[in-house]
Amino acid sequence: xxxxxxxxxxxxxxxHAETLRVMSFNIYGGGANDGKDVxxxxxxxxxxxxxxxxxQETRVEGTVCTADVxxxxxxxxxxxxxxxLGWHYYDQTQENVAxxxxxxxSRYPIGKASEHDLGVPVDVNGKTVWIxxxxxxxxxxxxxxxxDIPYGDAPFLKTGAEAEAAATATRGxxxxxxxxxxxxxxxxxxxxxxxxFNEPGYLDWTPEAVAKGTHPTSVVWPTTKxxxxxxxxxxxxxxxxxPVAKPAFTWTPTYDEAATDDHPDRIDFVFARxxxxxxxxxxxxxxxxxxxxxxxxxxPSDHRATxxxxxx
Length: 312
Known about the structure:
Elements: H1 5-12, E1 19-26, H2 38-48, E2 52-56, E3 60-61, E4 72-73, H3 78-85, E5 88-92, E6 102-106, E7 119-124, E8 127-135, H4 142-146, H5 160-181, E9 190-196, H6 207-212, H7 222-229, E10 233-234, H8 235-239, E11 268-273, E12 278-286, E13 294-295, E14 305-311
Parallel strand pairs: 1-2, 8-9, 12-13
Antiparallel strand pairs: 1-14, 2-6, 3-4, 5-6, 7-8, 9-11, 10-11, 12-14
Helix pairs in contact: 2-3
């Protein structure tokens, strides 16, 4: 049987591609930890022009906040942010090791959350995408351990291998929950993971970055590497692969990078996976300064955000 020209064209034509801008933003209580109005957070989101945002720290820090214990307090600001944008929202209220006052906001409708509350499906023009949004434990914090910076009772570390093992012990249980939840997204057109990982990216602490003096030793950080091994793309590094030219620090715009009692780093991420997926743009969103690709004044958070444009 001979196919008609129209039939051949229909067989050969690719499915319509969707483009999304996905943002990860630790909002520091919507700025409330520093007494700022949530309108500043809304303005920062508008400047980045995303379609879906994984928010972390939607509630303020409690009156007791140490390296080991820091419960969230007050109400989530996610509903107020979503209302100001005219968007949908989902507050991730389950208490587990992968969450600390998280929420997802979206231009598109949001469906029922995964078992451990880490992800939600989003209906994008009839296509289902999933966004998983996490906030990992910051203690023990291995960059500080390698740099002999006291933080809680964590011991100091000497080698990259020690840091990798310690990071796996610190965040491995949370990643196990994430991977269990991601089974719900097996038929999705695209899957995104956003979050404050409280751990650097595996593509950042390279020998070249060490030689430049950006980081103290080479480390293949396991939390982000585990996502890469599962087929996810580090969206910022796919656009800006050189960690020396673009270190892309998200921690922290409130601190002097030359200080010896902290260390600038990239700990906030948008990861993406999907058939035919490509990353067309990525940016760090922050204060008016050299570390920001998209600059917002005033800047409301103690983290810079990251946003990526992805087609699939």
